[in-house]
Specification:
Layout: E1 2-3, H1 7-24, H2 38-55, H3 60-70, H4 72-90, E2 95-96, H5 105-114, H6 117-124, H7 126-134, H8 137-141, H9 144-163, H10 171-196, H11 201-220, H12 232-236, H13 240-246
Antiparallel strand pairs: 1-2
Keywords: Signal
Signal peptide: 1-27
Length: 255
């Protein structure tokens, strides 16, 4: 069975919301990101600058520039990887379904990027912390150009689900329906609730990185003991109901 690369659109969204705005603040002073068409790059400039100024703070443009210049090597490498993933999708190059993520270049690329030292440095960058705190993700998700792109992706997933020749219980069809539902609720419900719960771009990347480390640990050390995860025994002592209460955002000081 051949499986499409579902991870590519997700990483592309991260690139648009994170990497490109930083580079495009003063785009005239920077070379076009690797693998990106100069004309397409130029089209992004006013949109990204407007997004940063409308949905960020008074210093978000300068902070984004500082984030880019301080993490330029990693960001350019990540952008190059995103462009390769998008080419694979646009050229309809499927990836064989496999249980081993090492055999799927898309999944492996995402995992390696998220768990890289460059991603860790970006997440810890004080300027990125400041930028993330200033950016309102609800505002970004509801920008006309962003909401339009989300709606387009949702419709593509819906069309793919309804037009798939595979059975309704196939993993691809189920994934299409999940994508459609998530994208439909992203701007109006999921994003705002995440922000209300104290979420921001940095926390989103931290979660993605932590999840990627979990995937790699389960893959590379399947027989590791609880000592590899100091918090495991602590949380094993709670009931599912207690864990649910602990992880509700209101218990962490948010309304």
């Amino acid at each position: 069975m051949r499986k499409r690369d579902h991870a590519a659109p997700a990483l592309a969204v991260v690139a648009v919301l994170l990497f490109l705005p930083a580079a495009q603040c003063l785009a005239g002073s920077f070379p076009t990101p690797p693998g990106m068409d100069p004309n397409e790059f130029a089209k992004f400039v006013p949109t990204m600058v407007s997004t940063l100024t409308t949905c960020g703070g008074s210093e978000s443009l300068l902070d984004a520039l500082s984030v880019y210049t301080g993490n330029q090597v990693f960001i350019n490498r990540a952008l190059s990887g995103v462009n390769e993933l998008n080419k694979r999708v646009s050229e309809a190059k499927p990836t064989a379904a496999t249980a081993d993520t090492r055999e799927n270049p898309v999944v492996e690329g995402v995992l390696q990027t998220l768990t890289s030292s460059g991603m860790t440095a970006l997440i810890k960058d004080p300027k990125f912390v400041k930028l993330s705190n200033a950016l309102n993700l609800t505002c970004i998700l509801n920008r006309p150009e962003v909401s339009s792109a989300i709606e387009q992706k949702a419709n593509e997933s819906l069309a793919a689900a309804e037009g798939s020749p595979e059975g309704s219980n196939s993993i691809d069809v189920v994934t299409y329906w999940i994508e459609y539902g998530l994208l439909q609720d992203m701007a109006g419900f999921i994003g705002p609730k995440y922000v209300e719960c104290g979420g921001n771009l940095r926390i989103l990347l931290q979660f993605a990185q932590a999840f990627s480390y979990l995937v790699l640990a389960n893959r590379d050390e399947p027989n590791r003991g609880s000592s590899a995860n100091p918090a495991l025994e602590k949380y094993n002592a709670y009931t599912p109901e207690e864990l649910y209460t602990i992880f509700q955002c209101k218990t962490r000081g948010y309304t």
